[in-house]
Amino acid sequence: MRLFSAPQLNPASESGWRRRWFDIIHRTDTPPSRRFDLLLVWAILASVLVVMVDSVQRIHVAWASWFYVVEWGFTLLFTAEYVLRLLVVRRPLRYAFSIWGIIDLLAILPSYISFFVPGAQSLLVVRVLRLLRVFRILKLTRYIEESGVLMLALWRSRRKILLFLSMVVTIAIIAGALMYVIEGPAYGFSNIPTSMYWAVVTMATVGFGDIVPHTTLGRFITSALILVGYSILAVPTGIYTAELAGTMLRERRQDTRGCVVCGHEGHEAKAHYCNRCGHELPEPLEP
Amino acid sequence: MRLFSAPQLNPASESGWRRRWFDIIHRTDTPPSRRFDLLLVWAILASVLVVMVDSVQRIHVAWASWFYVVEWGFTLLFTAEYVLRLLVVRRPLRYAFSIWGIIDLLAILPSYISFFVPGAQSLLVVRVLRLLRVFRILKLTRYIEESGVLMLALWRSRRKILLFLSMVVTIAIIAGALMYVIEGPAYGFSNIPTSMYWAVVTMATVGFGDIVPHTTLGRFITSALILVGYSILAVPTGIYTAELAGTMLRERRQDTRGCVVCGHEGHEAKAHYCNRCGHELPEPLEP
Amino acid sequence: MRLFSAPQLNPASESGWRRRWFDIIHRTDTPPSRRFDLLLVWAILASVLVVMVDSVQRIHVAWASWFYVVEWGFTLLFTAEYVLRLLVVRRPLRYAFSIWGIIDLLAILPSYISFFVPGAQSLLVVRVLRLLRVFRILKLTRYIEESGVLMLALWRSRRKILLFLSMVVTIAIIAGALMYVIEGPAYGFSNIPTSMYWAVVTMATVGFGDIVPHTTLGRFITSALILVGYSILAVPTGIYTAELAGTMLRERRQDTRGCVVCGHEGHEAKAHYCNRCGHELPEPLEP
Amino acid sequence: MRLFSAPQLNPASESGWRRRWFDIIHRTDTPPSRRFDLLLVWAILASVLVVMVDSVQRIHVAWASWFYVVEWGFTLLFTAEYVLRLLVVRRPLRYAFSIWGIIDLLAILPSYISFFVPGAQSLLVVRVLRLLRVFRILKLTRYIEESGVLMLALWRSRRKILLFLSMVVTIAIIAGALMYVIEGPAYGFSNIPTSMYWAVVTMATVGFGDIVPHTTLGRFITSALILVGYSILAVPTGIYTAELAGTMLRERRQDTRGCVVCGHEGHEAKAHYCNRCGHELPEPLEP
């Protein structure tokens, strides 16, 4: 169930600066490591904000040179961090080719490429992927527990969701082909892929309105598609809710203590005595 | 509860090539049958992709002759498969008039018709129905279990969903008539069917925006319709989730112990005695 | 919990034609009453269809005189039914002023008014309310059980839903006032009521697109409103689902038989023997 | 869990007019206090209605002077109420800087400011915040119980909802940056913040249609975003429903029997012995 493997990395040498930096980077319970995490999170958020704001034409014209300097500051900082990570882990290549390692690289690579390759300006947008790095850092904090329950429920219902997605795609193709024949290119249903795009937009109740049916039959089929689509789109909510409720219920029921006298099980987590015979229960295990 | 009856077909002769092809087509646990299924799934997906891509005007102009050849290749392959299916089953007519038989026929018929009848080009779109055939093949794989739970919940809540749909249609008619009177043809509410189309689009929160209220009263009624509609549209999600949660719960609780005396199954997890004949049950296995 | 009181009406005379017609109208288990219901349902559906189709300008021009005749046929039929209902019930006035009595009257009144008052054409649309009468007839059939569960859950969560609606209206007013100040009349936010209409349309994820924010601040607030709105709109689904699941669970658990030997309760509805001590259980009551 | 602390205020003097007015303002079970609450609720609703209606240009022109007078009437009434509240509570400053105190002040301040500062007309809209004051008054009534369950479930799922919101923002930033590069300013995706606004509007299925994709790749990504977004937006409904169902279940199961020895409450419905001290419990009441 582990989508991203935790960096179980040991430093090359047990002592010295590698050991110290490994602890700063990978632990979360010492003051230096907390300061490091905090610095990194703020740097990431600030750098993403700069990328976003820099895309606004009016602001770009006025502040371009400032943003250029700031951006290189962030790039050098993240480069230093990346090199440091490579140095302190036992198997640097394994880190470099892990998901997080690639994301770390993508966070700095665009700046260097656009420096050497003049036309690669549009690549700079890749830098917003830096945002994903915030999740790695937050992952080590107290939110992991909640995230675990949410992810577990998602994982448990993966096949149902896949089945649901293939149903949606099938309906989109059939409805799209139908509307392509009925409405035709005159009303924007230019071809089947475009009609499928319309069908997905309609079924998911987004309804941009850039393409709309104009014929009576087309409108009738649209109404039917909406109602069918709505019923089907209730499915993932249903799947997920049911799975989540089950997961939460099971977590809550974790008490497995049995009464030594009557063997009754299923006590409340806080119970001290068996609720059937009144005998004392064993102490609950620490969670 | 079986929406599509499984093809329980026996070959005319117990041995020979019919027997071999029946196994290839209808079994899933031998290497040849797996290869057959895989070939078919890929052929179907490829042919649907060709239909879709061919509808794009730009691509059609450039590749029309290629697509023509490829399409006839698929048609001949599916025709061969259709004939083979007819030959190996015990009752060919029953297969031919079953849902799957008709879908198989619709997968190949449009190509032949458009070959003989010049004006029947728009019929070619029917070929996207081939996609449904993928479901038959996948049906025999491991997804059937998940699909079963989803379908069972859907089937159990069919009456509630029907009731809900008739409620939606009623509200759409009344709201549509109301808006037709209030807004009138000047703002696109040309007649009651059009207004009903608008009401469905609005209630289901699609909101294309091709028809919108302009008068104050119309906007007020729209707001009310949205809120009422939203509350009502929460119903199918609720129905489905509750039913699904129940189905999943029951499945999980299904104790697999059978009574040694009367063979009754489906006891509660905590039961010590068979609830039909009263005989002692075997100890439950540790989960 | 009874939203519409069932017509518990006794005929004035115990025998004769009144008795016979009362049975035909109010019972559902005799062949004549079933034929009566069926006739009525089809007449209602046909008359509503005529009203709908007649509103289409093109069809109206061509078929106006035919529809006029057909419509008067339906009006006379429903008038006869209305008079009959008044005659056979013990307290005609009470029926006349009940919800169903008023709906029955509204089904026929517009035709007569438009006959005498020339300008009352738009009143004719009121005739679509006839559709509601179908529910009375269906109410007496097997769907009542499903409807009961749905209604019970709705009724149980009425206060939560009211609270939710007042939250939505409050947010709509505040967000509407905010957008009115930020965007102003230039971009369609002409006044607070219009802005409120926009806020409801946006929050409920309808999003017509007739009024959209154009300023950066307006777009930011819109994004926030959508996310807040979405979280809040998850509430009625949650309320309803939880209530429905509870209602369905409770219905399923209705078995209240206790074992006469060990007193254990909570057996399955189909259990014949106590699952704790194996003693025979009393017969379950008929539901 | 208390979002708004209840006004636990004692009057400066135990007797006299302060005591009487404190009771009128803060109690709900005496006839004068009920009349006071009712008067206030109606005054608030009326004053908000005036603000709303006054924003309609056509009405403003015709009724401006009347609204001016009425508005000052409300302002004076609410000012009197505000002063009264300050006078009767033991710690006026604490009230003045509480959430409710600030809302009470905001309800009257705009009128006075716009009287002295000519250009502050747009500030008058702040007066719709008066509406929030209705909740304080209703808070003291029977709806508090329902509100409590809803709020408790919301509070319990706060971390999951926060996690969900950060997921939505992350996806919006990445999808926004992607669409900015693919579609570009030519089709309205002028910059990343605008693209993010589009991504939120699309993911939440609002779909205004003011900005829509035009390229094939853009439409493909939009379809993917909608499906991913829809699956993710099912999460808060799932979280909330599961939490609400759990909360409602727990409330319903709360056995009201207290242990006669240790006073512990909240036993399971089927418990025979106190699960804290092991003493026998009284027999449960019949439900």
Automatic annotation (TrEMBL), chains A, B, C, D:
<feature type="domain" description="Ion transport">
    <location>
        <begin position="34"/>
        <end position="241"/>
    </location>
</feature>
<feature type="transmembrane region" description="Helical">
    <location>
        <begin position="36"/>
        <end position="53"/>
    </location>
</feature>
<keyword id="KW-0812">Transmembrane</keyword>
<dbReference type="InterPro" id="IPR027359">
    <property type="entry name" value="Volt_channel_dom_sf"/>
</dbReference>
<keyword id="KW-0813">Transport</keyword>
<keyword id="KW-0472">Membrane</keyword>
<feature type="transmembrane region" description="Helical">
    <location>
        <begin position="65"/>
        <end position="84"/>
    </location>
</feature>
<feature type="transmembrane region" description="Helical">
    <location>
        <begin position="224"/>
        <end position="242"/>
    </location>
</feature>
<keyword id="KW-1133">Transmembrane helix</keyword>
<keyword id="KW-0406">Ion transport</keyword>
<keyword id="KW-0407">Ion channel</keyword>
<keyword id="KW-0631">Potassium channel</keyword>
<dbReference type="Pfam" id="PF00520">
    <property type="entry name" value="Ion_trans"/>
</dbReference>
<feature type="transmembrane region" description="Helical">
    <location>
        <begin position="194"/>
        <end position="212"/>
    </location>
</feature>
<feature type="transmembrane region" description="Helical">
    <location>
        <begin position="161"/>
        <end position="182"/>
    </location>
</feature>
<protein>
    <submittedName>
        <fullName>Ion transporter</fullName>
    </submittedName>
</protein>
<dbReference type="InterPro" id="IPR005821">
    <property type="entry name" value="Ion_trans_dom"/>
</dbReference>
<dbReference type="InterPro" id="IPR028325">
    <property type="entry name" value="VG_K_chnl"/>
</dbReference>
<keyword id="KW-0630">Potassium</keyword>
<keyword id="KW-0633">Potassium transport</keyword>
<keyword id="KW-0851">Voltage-gated channel</keyword>
<feature type="transmembrane region" description="Helical">
    <location>
        <begin position="96"/>
        <end position="117"/>
    </location>
</feature>
